[in-house]
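Session log. Operator J.P. requested a structure for one protein chain; no other inputs attached. Running the standard single-chain path with C-alpha cell output.
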Amino acid sequence: MSEMEKLAEKLKQQKLQNESTQVNSEELTQQWVSSLDDLVSDIESWLKPLVDANVLRIKRESIVIHENPHPELRTRYPAPVLTLTLNGSEVKIKTKGRYIFGCVGRVDIEAGVKTWIVTRHVEDGREHWIIRRQGDARDAVAFNSDSLAEALSDYL
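Structure written below.
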C-alpha cells in the first residue's frame, strides 16, 4: 500500500469517526432536550397549587444553548427558562447545559443572591435529578415537589 493510499484510509476512518460522533451527539442532545421538557412539565405541575391560589405566576420562555465540550463536538439546542413570580419576587429556573462535569446536565434555580443547582444523573439507564444549594454538595437531595418547595421557602 502506498503512502497516499495509507493517508486516504486514515482520512476515511477519521471521517467515519467524526460522523459517528456527530450522530451520537445529536441523539444525546435530543435526549437532553426531552429530559428538560419533562423536568419543566413536572415543575409546572408541582407548582400548580400555588398558581391556582393566585400566589404564583409562571412565565415559560426558551433560549438557545451553545455547547462545545471538545473540538469535534459542537451542539446547539433550545432550552426552557421558567420565570416564577412569588409575592412580587422573581425566581429564574434556567438551563446551564448538558455537558457539565460530574453530571449529565444542569439547571439552576436563581432566587436573589441564592442559587440551587439541579443536576441530572443517569445510572443503569435510569434518570434522576438532585438539588443542592450552590457551594454545598453535602445537602444534596432528590429533586421533587417537596425539595422544590423547601428551596422556594428558603428564598422567601
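Operator note: The chain has a mean pLDDT of 85.
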